[in-house]
């Protein structure tokens, strides 16, 4: 909402010393978002006057049309003689009144005007266009031609109101009343402690039976409709300069006098209006819902197919307006045209003014359905004062009579549905409790009265909300009004005092530990958008019946290509890997921890929780039942070098083992035993994929996969060759682990190291052998490490040798050689029994 300060001063007697910046500071303190204060005419310096074109000489010897003009500027040039000016514009003629800037003046932007010789003539000034005067966008791009009644020499700076300040306010949806000068003036008057001259306080005649016939078939969609008729309009009447300039400063263009007046009153009072050409209306004006598939042409010339939910204005033929959004072309105000034979001017001479109040939700849906936002719909969907309709219609009638020479008919139509004023009961000390400040009864009542409320009561206040504030519905809304008017900056800054014993949850602590561990292992955390499309799952090579393809779809997605919530973290992470590779960062190790979303079976319907109290456990549970399942996953991706080469030696590339090791790092932080075995799934290479499992409540569960990505996936996503990834369900891993992870223990007793090399079939996973060795070695085993894998002629075809280093240690004594050897032999024996392992060299 653009608010010219000169217009605002008509309703509030601001001191002359108050600038737009001062008003901005006050309104921001009161809670309005005043984004900028535009200084119109900044740097403008006269003389800038009205001139009358006396003669025009066409200079034809140049490549473009040039005119040498003499202009009467009165006594403003100190000589009274005509001013000689060279001009290239062609939209003016002899006798026209124009705006002339004389030598010595400075136009906006620091453009100084001086007498100079050009095109073989001496030009003593310039005939100005709107753009050159900083009047905003001039669609015609030509010279300003003024009405003939202004005398040459008149100060054009004052006439065109070129010096002004305009406040640009970003009106939030809950403050629709500020989409008008009336609303902003009320806030300004309150902020400065000054009285308000309410422009809606007009003498309005009582409704009678002589007005234009109106029939409302949908009182839910339209609870008030005021109609007034004005006849005898002069079709040649044009909007005066002051009206055009106010519309221009407010960001609207001048169309015609009748339309300009309706727009002016809308900006002034906040009530959208529409003017119909009475001669083009047939029968009674009606308000109803559109018939499905009904067709209608709006003022912008577009043929629209209506929906049954659209509210329309009709006559006996059908729709003549899309209620609260845009009028119809079939009742448009006609421009004045002259009959070439008789010279008689034709145009609209009788208008019917509509000032109605429509349901906000209905108008918002219609505007979005037809992608047809307008100044009217913008106001209706935020809430318009229903009590302002009659005053807005009267104001429009008065201006039409004054500016167009019309006559107001005596008939006044007003169809209304009785709506009782809304009241809210609030404890007098409620704002004090919300803000933590003792305002007191007197301050609370005064502030509520300043926003237009009627207040009664002592300890318990009964507040009647004004009609222009539909956003005030409960005690907290009223408390907010008191607090903002008293000043948010005056609220004390106090730190909350949490009760003892409350800290991070076990889930939060695990999340932090895992993040620190992966960061210590060389991974960098990244965040991805939680949106997904079928195309990403196709690129990952997931089967058509894969559970990850069951997605929670969004009603209003940000992108049509990603209409659902993610079921896996890999697309986002792999996208980050691809961007890093494309920007020259080839050695990448990334991780992300976040929620994935899975639809529930028999999804419950959404519920609405109360706001006046804490929801019960049952209510919270019912709300959670409406949400999709949201387990927390963790994923990593790797590409390029895992260890850099240098003077210290050769580096090595990242491979599938690094992806598996990242899962082990996470499992250690969760205090869980991770089962790793060969597997195969979607995006991973079938021969280099590890299946990750844990035991939860005695049941083994697969929680993820790790390894090298499939070459087809690498090619489809444009990833580096041999890229690796891991993803697991962090919540299930936590459930399998011990929430209390013991810290490392340092023993003062020496370690006993025993090596063992076992020969097994090539098909036996090393992880199975390791697990059996740990079980057989018993409690004395401190650690076990695979340090060599050998295949070759020495052990036979189809066999492999696995060499392990076993470290034994007791917490309370030094182990003997016999104890360590016994533990080693027990481990070998169990491995031989379970896996068929044979001690190498035996």
Key terms:
single chain, 842 residues, alpha+beta, Phenylalanyl-tRNA Synthetase, Chain B, domain 1, OB fold (Dihydrolipoamide Acetyltransferase, E2P), Phenylalanyl-tRNA Synthetase, Chain B, domain 3, 5 domains, seven-stranded mixed β-sheet, 21 helices, 44 strands, 25% helix
The top level CATH class name of the largest domain: Alpha Beta
Characterize the overall form.
Answer: elongated
Q: What is the CATH fold-level name of the largest domain?
A: Phenylalanyl-tRNA Synthetase, Chain B, domain 3
Total of DSSP H or I helical runs spanning 4+ residues: 21
Q: What gyration radius follows from the Cα positions, in whole Å?
A: 40 Å
Q: What is the CATH architecture assignment of the largest domain?
A: 3-Layer(bba) Sandwich
CATH superfamily of the largest domain: Phenylalanyl-trna Synthetase, Chain B, domain 3
Strand fraction band? 25-35%
Q: What strand order characterises the main sheet?
A: 30-33-34-40-39-38-37
In which range does the helix fraction lie?
Answer: 25-40%
Q: Strand count, sense and closure of the main sheet?
A: 7 strands, mixed
The average pLDDT score comes to 91
Oligomeric state of shown chains: single chain
Unreliable parts: none
Q: In whole angstroms, how far apart are the ends? A: 91 Å
- Structural class of the secondary elements? alpha+beta
């Amino acid at each position: 909402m653009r608010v010219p300060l000169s217009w605002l001063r008509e309703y509030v007697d601001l001191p002359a010393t108050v600038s737009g910046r001062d008003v901005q500071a006050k309104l921001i303190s009161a809670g309005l978002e005043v984004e900028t204060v535009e200084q119109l005419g900044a740097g403008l310096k006269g003389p800038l006057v009205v001139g009358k074109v006396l003669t025009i000489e066409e200079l034809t010897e140049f490549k473009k049309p040039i005119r040498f003009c003499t202009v009467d500027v009165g006594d403003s040039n100190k000589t009274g003689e005509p001013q000689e000016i060279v001009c290239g514009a062609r939209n003016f003629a002899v006798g026209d009144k124009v705006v002339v800037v004389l030598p010595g003046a400075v136009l906006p932007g620091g453009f100084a005007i001086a007498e100079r010789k050009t095109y073989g003539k001496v030009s003593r000034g310039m005939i100005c266009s709107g753009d050159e005067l900083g009047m905003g966008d001039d669609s015609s791009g030509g010279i300003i031609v003024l009405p003939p009644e202004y005398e040459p020499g008149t100060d054009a700076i004052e006439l065109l109101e070129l010096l002004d300040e305009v406040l640009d306010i970003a009106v939030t949806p809950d403050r629709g009343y500020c989409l008008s000068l009336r609303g902003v003036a009320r806030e300004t008057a309150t902020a400065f402690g000054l009285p308000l001259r309410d422009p809606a306080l007009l003498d309005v005649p009582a409704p009678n039976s002589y007005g234009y016939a109106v029939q409302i078939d949908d009182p839910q969609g339209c609870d008030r409709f005021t109609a007034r008729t004005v006849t005898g309009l002069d079709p040649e009447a044009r909007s005066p300069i002051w009206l055009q300039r106010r519309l221009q400063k407010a960001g609207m263009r001048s169309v015609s006098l009748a339309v300009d007046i309706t727009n002016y009153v809308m900006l002034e009072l906040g009530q959208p209006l529409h003017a119909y050409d009475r001669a083009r209306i047939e029968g009674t004006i009606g308000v109803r819902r559109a018939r499905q598939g009904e067709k209608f042409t709006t003022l912008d010339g577009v043929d629209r197919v209506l929906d049954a939910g659209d509210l329309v204005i009709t006559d006996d033929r059908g729709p003549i307006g899309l209620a609260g959004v845009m009028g119809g072309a079939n009742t448009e105000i006609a421009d004045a045209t002259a009959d070439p034979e008789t010279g008689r001017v034709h145009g609209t001479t009788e208008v019917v003014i509509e000032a109605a109040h429509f349901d906000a939700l209905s108008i918002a849906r219609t505007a979005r359905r037809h992608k047809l936002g307008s100044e009217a719909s913008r106001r209706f969907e935020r809430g318009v004062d229903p009590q302002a309709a009659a005053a807005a219609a009267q104001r429009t009638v008065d201006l039409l009579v004054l500016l167009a020479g019309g006559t107001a008919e005596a008939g006044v139509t007003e169809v209304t549905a009785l709506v009782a004023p809304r009241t809210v009961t609030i404890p007098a000390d409620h704002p004090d409790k919300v803000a933590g400040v003792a305002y007191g009864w007197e301050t609370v009542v005064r502030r509520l009265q300043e926003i237009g409320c009627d207040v009664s009561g002592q300890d318990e206040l009964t507040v009647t909300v004004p009609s222009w504030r539909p956003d005030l519905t409960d005690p907290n809304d009223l408390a907010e009004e008191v607090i903002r008017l008293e000043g948010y900056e005056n609220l004390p800054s106090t730190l909350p005092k949490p009760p003892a014993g409350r800290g991070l949850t076990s889930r939060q602590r695990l999340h932090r530990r895992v993040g620190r561990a992966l960061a210590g292992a060389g991974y960098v955390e990244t965040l991805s958008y939680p949106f997904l499309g079928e195309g990403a799952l196709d690129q990952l090579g997931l089967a058509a019946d894969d559970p990850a393809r069951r997605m929670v779809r969004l009603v209003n997605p940000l992108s049509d290509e990603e209409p659902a919530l993610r079921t896996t973290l890999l697309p986002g992470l792999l996208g980050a890997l691809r961007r890093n590779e494309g920007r020259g960062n080839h050695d990448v190790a990334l991780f992300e921890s976040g929620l994935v979303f899975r639809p529930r079976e028999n999804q419950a319907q959404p519920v609405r929780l109360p706001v006046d109290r804490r929801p019960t456990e049952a209510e919270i549970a019912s709300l959670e039942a409406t949400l999709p399942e949201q387990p927390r996953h963790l994923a990593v991706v790797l590409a390029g070098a895992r260890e850099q080469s240098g003077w210290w030696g050769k580096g090595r590339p990242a491979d599938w083992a690094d992806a598996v090791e990242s899962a082990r790092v996470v499992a250690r932080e969760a205090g869980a035993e991770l089962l790793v075995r060969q597997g195969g799934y979607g995006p991973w290479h079938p021969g280099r994929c590890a299946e990750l499992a844990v035991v939860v409540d005695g049941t083994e569960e697969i929680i993820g996969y790790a390894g090298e990505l499939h070459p087809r996936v690498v090619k489809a996503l444009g990833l580096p060759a041999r890229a690796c990834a891991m993803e697991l369900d962090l919540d299930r891993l936590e459930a399998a682990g011990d929430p209390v992870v013991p810290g490392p223990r340092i023993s003062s007793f020496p370690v006993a190291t025993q090596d063992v090399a076992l020969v097994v079939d090539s098909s036996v996973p090393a992880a199975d052998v390791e697990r059996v060795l740990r079980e057989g070695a018993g409690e004395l085993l401190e650690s076990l490490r695979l340090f060599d894998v050998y295949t070759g002629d020495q052990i036979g075809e189809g066999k492999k040798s696995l060499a392990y280093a076993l470290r034994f240690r007791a917490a309370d004594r030094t182990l003997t050689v016999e104890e360590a050897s016994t533990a080693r032999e027990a481990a070998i024996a169990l491995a031989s029994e379970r896996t068929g392992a044979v001690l190498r060299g035996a």
